[in-house]
Amino acid sequence: MKRLILSFAITLAAVFTSYAQDYNDQWLAKQRVYTSVEEALSNADKAEVLDLSNQGMSSLPADIALLKGLKAIYIQGNTLTAIPPELLQLTELRFIFADQNAIAKIPGEIAGLKKLKRISLANNRISEIAPLTNCAQLESATLSNNLIYTIPATISNMKSLKELDLSFNKITAFQGALTNLKDLEVLMLAGNLIPTLPTTVANFKSLKVLYLDNNKIRDMTQICNITTLTRLSLSGCGLMSIPARISQLYNLQRLILSHNSLTSVPTDITKLTSLVFLDLSNNRLTRLPNEVVKFESLYDLNLCNNLFAQFPELLQNLPALKAIGVSGNRTQMVPPMLGYERDLY
Which residue, of 55, 120, 137, 166, is most buried by count of CB atoms within 10 Å of its CB? Predict the structure, then answer.
């Protein structure tokens, strides 16, 4: 059966956009985009956005340094091995997009870009991010798919940071200094080697989105102290149980616990009455608690690839439920009323 494509469905590959980034994107969308340095120099007093992406460049033209009013530059998809020194002279820069290059190092001189708000360096060869922590005004940093092993203690200097993506690196420990970032809203650490979280995660005051998929986190107890979370993903972490304290995450709207070793679901999870998306697929579940009827806002429930011999008829009493994943169980048959006007996949 074909699954309904939900506008709010969350996957690890989806890009989460905060209110801050949304504002930035709107500004960028309204600007004239120059696609060559020559073109920009012909109107240097007005050139604010330059797109040199996917041009096979191993270096940038030296005269790019003449674009003193430049605020945003796109240089992704090239063959750059370093952040070009010419960029470090452009003190009006707010945005740098340099994904998919071969950049190995972040220069200390980047601290001179006092107005830098957003930098994206995904899919490079960076192993050390300490220089970036001197960018006190930075609000968003994307560093996924690099060679980063540690999060420096100086990360706590980034008081303005709202979004940090360190997914798919080689990080072996959750740096407690992260919890000093009181304005941090989005933290993405999927695909690393993190085994535990410190008790200080309770100090997060603004964190809404946390991705920890495919780490070595076997116990999610500490996460239950981050009561501001609206999205949590712990797919592929080897979880064997869900703590009763999950009920403390009363703001959760989307919860992904797929590809674990769960054999049961605690009654306390049904206290998460704001949930609209719950993914329990690829576990070892055979039943759900009767209290599941408390999920009055639940829109999509994924139970695929578990061990259900039958699905609880009580699910038909969920007023908002429109999509249910049932494939890959001992049975895919559902009570007739459960499938009525719902997408089964």
Answer: 166
Q: How confident is the model at residue 184 (pLDDT cuts 50, 70, 90)?
A: very high
pLDDT of the residue at 25: 75
345 exposed, middle or buried (CB, 10 Å; 0-12, 13-18, 19+)? middle
Q: Which residue has the tokens 């949930």?
A: 275
In this predicted structure, the answer to whether residue 3 has a pLDDT above a threshold of 70 is: no
Going through the chain in order, the beta strands assigned E by DSSP cover 33-34, 49-51, 72-74, 95-97, 118-120, 140-142, 163-165, 186-188, 209-211, 231-233, 254-256, 277-279, 300-302, 323-325, 343-344
Instruction: In whole angstroms, give the CA distance from residue 28 to residue 54.
Output: 19
Three-state SS string over 126-194 comes to CCCCHHHHHCCCCCEEECCCCCCCCCCHHHHHCCCCCEEECCCCCCCCCCHHHHHCCCCCEEECCCCCC
Burial class (CB in 10 A: 0-12, 13-18, 19+), 56: exposed
In 3D space, the residue among 67, 61, 56, 161 whose CA is nearest the CA of residue 119 turns out to be: 161
Query: Locate tokens 């209110």: which residue?
Result: 19
For the chain, the structural domain boundaries read 18-217, 231-345
String of b and e for 116-145 (b: at least 16 CB within 10 Å)?
bbbbbbbbbebeebebbbbbeebbbbbbbb
Res 23: pLDDT: 53
- Please state which CATH number belongs to domain 18-217: 3.80.10.10
DSSP 8-state assignment for residue 32: -
Which pair of tokens denotes residue 22?
Answer: 């949304």
Q: Which homologous superfamily is 231-345 in?
A: Ribonuclease Inhibitor (3.80.10.10)
Q: Decide if 18-217 and 231-345 have a common fold.
A: yes
